[in-house]
Design brief:
Blueprint (H helix, E strand, L loop, with lengths): L9 H29 L5 H25 L9 E2 L2 E2 L3 H36 L3 H26 L13 H7 L3 H21 L2 H5 L5 H11 L3 H19 L7 H24 L4 H11 L25 E13 L6 E12 L14 E12 L5
Antiparallel strand pairs: 1-2, 3-4, 4-5
Helix pairs in contact: 1-2, 1-10, 2-3, 2-10, 3-4, 3-6, 3-10, 4-6, 6-9, 9-10
Protein name: Rhodopsin domain-containing protein
InterPro entries: Rhodopsin_dom_fungi (IPR049326), SAT4-like (IPR052337)
Family: Belongs to the SAT4 family.
Length: about 375
């Protein structure tokens, strides 16, 4: 196996961490704002995403502290092909234990949030609902299994968790194998979860372009899988090829770095499918600015999401000259006006998906003097 490229830009890593923190907070806030403006109500997928955000922020805090303390981007002295123990190695071991323990709930909660969202969007299919519940059960079991395996990797002899790497590898469980299995199953489960709604979308009665557009939203999750593959590669190279990669602290940096990237990208992907109302509202407001004249004009005024329909239309559909009826050349004009609206959310139970609509259509004949034309 080749020698991996080391990450040494401490300031760049700190900036990346701060940007990730700002972005994940923003996307989750926009997720809740989207639910508010569409009056869809908050679901378990939203609350699970919020819990995932809390753990992601904790993960980012651990990563930032490790970078500031020098554990990330640090290096181990190497003698005879083996890292020499220094105080920084013990610090790195402590941060590694805290990070790897915290990342398990992060990935688990994000996966469950996405599955609950799938169930909410595509729950009309009984088979799909059952599949979602099965995957939720598997994900919860997967999360607890690896969480407790990490917590008790050295039994209850807690100091061994941050002992020198040579002692840690001989006194604790085969953590390298556990990390490899964890990373591999993480990628497989992500592939299954992302692919789940694709067959349902292709069965919809929509133009092919719209089907491709919908699928592209879900396939953004491939970025998460890419980060997971990069992390797995780093695990394999740095763990099983110590001859070419003997610098423990530098290897620790690479593995933690890619875990950090994967967790934050997954947090963004978890919320992106819910942000359509916010994006639509922003695009509509942008067209009222001078920049709007450079934007394409929308051909459809109706804004729909997969869950919520908001209808507020008041338009004159037809207006034309009807006839001339007398010598005074009085013009009669026929017009049809239609208005429609949805019922107040107070009229129905919150969980009722029914939409009450009222449409009033009236035809008017208005006399106008020919001189006013």
């Amino acid at each position: 196996m080749p020698t991996v490229q080391q990450a040494n830009d401490r300031n760049g890593i700190i900036v990346m961490n701060v940007l990730f923190t700002i972005i994940v907070i923003t996307v989750v806030a926009l997720r809740f704002y989207a639910r508010h403006i569409t009056r869809a109500g908050y679901g378990w997928d939203d609350w699970t995403a919020l819990a995932a955000l809390i753990f992601t922020l904790a993960l980012n805090g651990i990563f930032l502290a490790a970078t500031i303390d020098g554990a990330i981007t640090g290096h181990s002295p190497v003698v005879d092909g083996w890292p020499v123990t220094i105080p920084l190695e013990i610090v790195a071991q402590k941060y590694k234990y805290a990070f790897q323990t915290t990342e398990k709930p992060v990935f688990g909660l994000i996966k469950v949030s996405i599955l609950l969202l799938w169930k909410r969007l595509f729950g009309s299919s009984k088979r799909f609902r059952i599949l979602c519940w099965v995957m939720i059960g598997i994900t919860i079991a997967w999360t607890f299994a690896f969480f407790f395996t990490t917590v008790f990797q050295c039994g209850t002899r807690w100091p061994l968790n941050w002992s020198p790497i040579g002692i840690f590898l001989t006194k604790c469980i085969a953590t390298l194998d556990v990390l490899t299995v964890f990373a591999s199953t993480d990628i497989v489960s992500d592939l299954i979860i992302i692919a789940m709604p694709v067959p349902l979308i292709w069965r919809l009665h929509l133009p092919t372009k719209k089907k491709v557009a919908l699928n592209s939203v879900f396939l953004i999750g491939l970025f998460t899988i890419g980060a997971g593959i990069a992390r797995t590669y780093m695990y394999l190279v740095t763990s099983y090829d110590k001859e070419n990669n003997p610098d423990f602290i530098a290897d620790f940096t690479l593995c933690i770095l890619w875990s950090e990237i994967e967790a934050n990208v997954a947090m963004m992907v978890c919320c992106l499918p819910t942000l359509t109302p916010v994006i639509g509202k922003f695009a509509a407001s942008l067209r009222t600015t001078p920049l709007g004249k450079w934007l394409p004009t929308a051909t459809e005024k109706t804004h729909m999401t997969s869950e919520d329909v908001e209808l507020s239309v008041a338009s004159k559909l037809r207006r034309k000259q009807f006839s001339r009826l007398s010598d005074k050349e009085t013009l009669w004009q026929e017009g049809t006006v239609a208005t429609a609206g949805y019922s107040s959310t107070n009229e129905l139970p919150r969980n009722n998906r029914t939409i009450l609509a009222r449409t009033d259509i009236s035809t008017t004949f208005e006399a106008r003097d020919s001189d006013s034309l």
